[in-house]
């Protein structure tokens, strides 16, 4: 627990693209402080100061490969790592009964079931995108999908990310697909078309299509196209800086501190549910 009243946050994956952005965000946002920084055993960053690595100068938080003592003296964890690591961290957050903010994407149904089980004791906020803009976009997509009939308007979701991204479709594309499916009052599973190749036949009415682009340093671009006969609506979001995700994650942690254990979304945090 914090001695200052500020929420003590452990950043796991502290040397990663998001990890370093999170360290900088915590440093500038009131009400939170960096309580720990974790990387995997064998990481070349172990022992280095998390603040110095993130470019804000020494903050006296060395990067460790041992999450348990770090979690034991913290109020929350910010986790943008990888699915297997996130499942493990959710178990530790449940043991410590603290907040766990999960931005990691590419989790399987089995991973999500384990995270949901951990949420019996941890207060978990999980979202494929922590930005205000994308979560507002999801609300607009749901409204548009509800207003425009599935027989008249086809929904296609297009995303582009940097060359280092390992999962597809992006967590955000799936979040937007879920919003479109909710608007249409259908499940996304079974109505999604994730890949097209070769002789696909004509488009099946009511399906939700995905297209993935990878290249360069693109932070994250998403467009939802509602294509009718003779007209087309495109709803888009362009992330220009990872700071939007990091600020959203810190905001989620501060919000979750006062909440009971459970599994929450960024829409809950932002009051958009
Ligand atoms: N929800 C949202 O708003 C956003 C979500 N993301 C998601 O966040 C995740 C991370 O993205 P990004 O920062 O670009 O990726 P990076 O690869 O740059 O960072 C991930 C970091 O986590 C570390 N890590 C992996 N496994 C462990 C472990 N077991 N213990 C400790 N550290 C570990 C990695 O170490 P190593 O390199 O040694 O494997 C790496 O330093 C992705 O799933 C991405 O899609 C990204 C941006 C926004
Ligand atoms: O890997 C990334 O970089 C991002 N991942 C998230 C996703 O999968 O949607 C969020 C953001 O678009 C950046």
From TrEMBL:
Pathway assigned to this chain's UniProt record: Amino-acid biosynthesis; L-lysine biosynthesis via DAP pathway; (S)-tetrahydrodipicolinate from L-aspartate: step 4/4
Residues annotated as binding NAD(+): 13-18, 39, 103-105, 127-130
Domain Dihydrodipicolinate reductase C-terminal positions: 133-270
Lineage: Bacteria, Pseudomonadati, Pseudomonadota, Alphaproteobacteria, Hyphomicrobiales
The protein, known as: 4-hydroxy-tetrahydrodipicolinate reductase
Function: Catalyzes the conversion of 4-hydroxy-tetrahydrodipicolinate (HTPA) to tetrahydrodipicolinate.
NCBIfam families, sorted: dapB (TIGR00036)
Matching Gene3D superfamilies: Dihydrodipicolinate Reductase, domain 2 (3.30.360.10), NAD(P)-binding Rossmann-like Domain (3.40.50.720)
Chief localisation class: cytoplasm
Similarity comment: family membership: Belongs to the DapB family.
Residues annotated for (S)-2,3,4,5-tetrahydrodipicolinate binding in this entry: 162, 171-172
EC numbers: 1.17.1.8
Subunit structure: Homotetramer.
Residues that bind NADP(+): 40
Active site annotation, chain numbering: 161 (proton donor/acceptor), 165 (proton donor)
InterPro entries: DapB_C, DapB_N, DapB_N_CS, DHDPR_bac, NAD(P)-bd_dom_sf
Coiled-coil stretches noted in the UniProt entry, renumbered to this chain: none
Domain Dihydrodipicolinate reductase N-terminal residue range list: 8-130
Record's keyword terms, sorted: Amino-acid biosynthesis, Cytoplasm, Diaminopimelate biosynthesis, Lysine biosynthesis, NAD, NADP, Oxidoreductase
Subcellular location, record wording: Cytoplasm
Any Pfam family matching the protein: DapB_N
Record's keyword annotation contains NADP: yes
GO molecular function: 4-hydroxy-tetrahydrodipicolinate reductase
Keyword NADP attributed: yes
């Amino acid at each position: 627990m914090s001695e200052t009243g500020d929420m003590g946050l452990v950043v796991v994956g502290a040397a990663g693209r998001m990890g370093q952005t999170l360290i900088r965000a915590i440093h500038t946002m009131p009400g939170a402080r960096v309580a720990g920084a974790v990387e995997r055993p064998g990481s070349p960053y172990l022992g280095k100061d998390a603040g110095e690595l993130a470019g804000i100068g020494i903050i006296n938080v060395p990067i460790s490969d041992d999450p348990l003592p770090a979690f034991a003296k913290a109020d929350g964890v910010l986790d943008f790592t990888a699915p297997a690591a996130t499942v493990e961290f959710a178990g530790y957050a449940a043991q410590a009964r603290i907040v766990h903010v999960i931005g990691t994407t590419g989790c399987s149904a089995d991973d999500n079931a384990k995270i949901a089980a951990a949420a019996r004791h941890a207060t978990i906020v999980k979202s494929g995108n922590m930005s205000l803009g994308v979560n507002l976009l999801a609300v607009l997509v749901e409204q548009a999908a509800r207003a425009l009939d599935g027989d008249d308007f086809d929904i296609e979701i297009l995303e582009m990310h940097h060359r280092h991204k390992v999962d597809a479709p992006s967590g955000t594309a799936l979040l937007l697909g879920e919003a479109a499916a909710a608007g249409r009052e259908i499940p996304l599973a079974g109505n999604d078309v994730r890949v097209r190749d070769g002789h696909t036949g004509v488009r099946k009415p009511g399906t939700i299509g995905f297209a993935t682009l990878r290249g360069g340093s693109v932070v994250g671009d998403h467009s939802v196209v509602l294509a009718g006969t003779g007209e087309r609506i495109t709803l888009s979001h362009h992330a220009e800086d990872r700071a939007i995700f990091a600020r959203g994650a810190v905001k989620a942690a501060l919000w979750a501190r006062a909440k009971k254990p459970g599994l929450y979304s960024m829409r809950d945090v932002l009051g958009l549910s």
